[in-house]
Structures
1.
Amino acid sequence: MPKLQGFEFWRTTLKGARYVVAPMVDQSELAWRLLSRRHGAELCYTPMLHAQVFVRDPNYRRENLYNEACPEDRPLIAQFCANDPEVFVKAALLAQDYCDAIDLNLGCPQMIAKRGHYGAFLQEEWNLLEKMLTLANEKISVPLTCKIRVFSEIEKTVEYAKMLEKAGCQLLTVHGRTKEQKGAMTGIASWEHIKAVRKAVNIPVFANGNIQHLSDVQRCMDETGVHGVMSAEGNLHNPALFEGSSPPVWEMAEEYLEVVQQYPCSLSYVRAHLFKLWHHTLQIYQELREELAKVKTLSGMAEVNRQLKQRCQEEMAKGGDGRKSVNGLPFPHWICQPYVRPVPKEPGSENGQPKPQTKVTCVKRALEDSDGTTEFLSKNKQKKKARNPHKNFNLEQKPKYIRCEQCGNPKGNKCVFSLCRGCCKKAAYKATADCPGHGLLFKTKQERALKLKSEEAQRAANGESAVQAGGEPVA
């Protein structure tokens, strides 16, 4: 049976999904996807998976996709980052039986994507992307989709989208920000870019960016003509966004913790979700922030949630507004609502008036005193000192290490090549040598294999079986 394409794929397999939860690293795990689906989400993505690791590591495949497969979590799109056509195809083939489509991440703008050469940092390499999509489209049995960021120029963004469609992309998600728009410079997403792409291609288009409330979803669809809207930050602060409700933060936390009991995940994921849900309330109750940072069990997190609920209800009983405590909130701080980043100021202006140019000098933070006293330690080092009172931060008293001759990392004290473990492994493998200091026995293993092979050949020459050496001949 030929695989479905374009609008047929969107209508049939994805059931005409309009409300979409974005792929988020360490944040769109199964428990969160199921919670979001309960509250209106119609389509979810896996967190971004690294194609090369997915191919190489069976445990990675099990923990990030295989063990999470369940009927309630469909339709589901598995997203990969990759920069090699063959590796991308291998990863997609291993994943295709556990999802409804494979998405190529072309939108990640973070530094790790720049170092790994994937995500938005591939958007100038059109020949490579065309090859990746064309090859994958031929080999895999499920449709291919892409998530992209825009270029500054609308025309170039449109040509980029048309190239991806021609190469085999069956659904396109357009994040209306450039790869430079991140962190403090995030700013407003351009729906004009998204609208232009929607008009230019003949496949379904999802919009991503500026979605904080359900009203934003409909407005975005009306203004851009897209077929669905994807939310990331808005969903993290309010998983009930797509059903148009804004429940108390403790209710969402309670429900999420119940789902995690049934579908366990890393405690770091749970903690990160609670920090997002409680973002505004933790501005008021700072001590609960510290409690959440330290707690190490789900029951402990549930107890912090109980305390947060109790304090908010006490504040409500006293007639507190909950909005005066945190500036600029449309609802009381205990209601699920988005965190809106301040819009970056235009350089050279203040309140719309030209600002006199002044030379900005970069001043580095003063170094901590070399005696390592708590008074001069950073907060991070003070926490380490609290866990280990004997820890020494004095650089002058720390033992000096000898650097690896190839990469500069600390070398192994007993390494026969005077290298770190990584470089030693490469050198020992190339030379078929042993390094007892790093536990690498390439030469020994080869000698054992040759000896075993020689013994088997000798037994075969004597008419003996490898199992019955010295015994009865095998019939």
Note: Confidence is low (pLDDT under 50) at residues 351-375, 469-475.
2.
Amino acid sequence: MIVAEAWQWNYLFWVIPVVIILGFLAFIGILAVLFVIRLYAKLTCGRYREKTKMDGKTVIVTGCTSGIGKETARELAKRGARVIMACRSMEMAEKVQDEIIMETKNTNVLVKKLDLSSFASIRTFAEDINKTEKKLDVLIHNAGYAETFKKNISEDGIELTMATNHYGPFLLTHLLINLLKKSSPSRIVVVASSLYRLGSVNLDNPNPTNTMPGYLYYVSKEANILFTKELARRLEGTGVTANCLHPGLIDTGIWRNVPAPLSWGLGLINQLFFKTPVQGCQTTVMLAVDEKLNKVNGEYFSDCEKSSLSSKASDMGRARKLWEISEKMVKLEENDPRI
């Protein structure tokens, strides 16, 4: 009996420390793997390193109170551009405006009210821009809306995700197109997402008010790409180009509507694998600034390089059909510019 107890104690004396050590080594190994993945993501992240200036150029950036929009506005202001921050919340926008001016010493940063889910707000904004601005060199469609479960309808009776992410930018582009043409060579930059592969635009249901909004975010990103492709085709020879991009998965406020407990795991994934807003704005800045892209039109970019699209997102028949539907959805008026 005494021998058995002694053996058990001897066994525990050796096994428990070994288990602890192996557990510790496994934990260190997991941390090392995560570190390597994080380092790889950082090293392979596209970065626009040219120092091209934007002095004398006017740029509109929609949705720039936070995230990649804010960093895009900041970077363009650093390069000397006249930056018009088109934002829904004036209070938040004015705080960011002060921050950017203080950091960049560029006082030519303006804030103007724009709610892309409201056709009336878009028309008021565009009318103001056309009256007060002599030129418009770059229009950046950055603003995006995402909701997970709650269904919302815009004041125009359109599902809010599609209204904000697709129909709003579609209408705004039309209302500013003459100023862009007058300012040519000029550019339109559309922030899409590779998440478009998770959704598909239903051309038979252009106002999907009964579809889960989380899915419609992906749908709206495919709509962004189809819109850009058809827009580029229609703008050939005008001196205005249109390109779209995937900024990467970004740790920004776009994920704030994800509910618990999904948000708990997502928060950890954000920290480990998602890009920062500074990293995420690089491709947008490149498309707005790079002089080598003056004649590049109708392309899709990711990590500061051209990237491929799925066959559905490249289908010009679908792109033209969505365009025709969108013209009706935004209720273009007789005197509105056509593209």
Note: The mean pLDDT is 87.
